[in-house]
Each structure stands twice: as structure tokens, then as C-alpha cells.
Write a sequence for this structure.
């Protein structure tokens, strides 16, 4: 779980997959275990984290998050890829590996 205060630090170096989600969002709850599997498979090669948009609405607004779940993948602080809705684990792992 990533807060607004630590967000910039998390995305600045290397590759980071960030899942923007909300507790009231059904598809977000479906995606949660998939994100956990991605984190397990990627290990220490990239950061995998979640941002609750209700607790960090300034951050969600800054990145134009209008639909949840939305996944952003950053490399060295620059947003490289974006996915909306529930995604397949393999697709996400491949997207991270493409940036490593």
C-alpha cells in the first residue's frame, strides 16, 4: 500500500507497477489477488504497489485516474504503460519485463 507522501520515491528509480483501486470497487477486489501474484513472480526486479484513490484522491487526480482499477507502470519516474480494468497476470508481468 502506497501513500501520496511516498509515491514519488517509489516510482523514481527502476520499474514500478501501481494499481489505483478503491475498497468499494468490485473489479478492484477481483484484481487484488492478480496483483499479488504479479508481485510474487516479479520479486525484487520491480516495485508492485497499490494506491487507494479514496485515501489519495490528489494523487489520483494528478494522474487522471477516472476509472478503477487503473494500473500505471513507471520506469525511472516516467509513466510508460496504462491498463484499465481487470488484467491478466501474464500481460502485466510481460509489461514489466519489457521495461526491465
Amino acid at each position: 500500500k502506497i501513500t501520496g507522501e511516498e509515491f514519488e520515491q517509489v516510482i523514481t528509480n527502476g520499474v514500478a507497477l501501481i494499481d489505483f483501486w478503491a475498497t468499494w470497487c468490485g473489479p478492484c477486489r477481483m484484481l487484488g489477488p492478480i496483483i499479488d501474484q504479479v508481485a510474487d513472480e516479479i520479486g525484487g526486479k520491480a516495485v508492485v504497489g497499490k494506491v487507494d484513490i479514496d485515501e489519495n484522491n490528489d494523487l489520483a487526480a494528478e494522474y487522471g485516474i477516472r476509472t478503477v482499477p487503473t494500473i500505471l507502470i513507471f520506469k525511472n519516474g516516467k509513466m510508460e504503460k496504462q491498463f484499465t480494468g481487470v488484467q491478466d497476470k501474464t500481460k502485466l508481468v510481460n509489461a514489466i519485463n519489457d521495461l526491465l
About this structure: DSSP finds four helices and four strands in the chain. Strands lie at 15-21, 47-52, 70-75, 78-84. The radius of gyration is 12 Å. The mean pLDDT is 96.
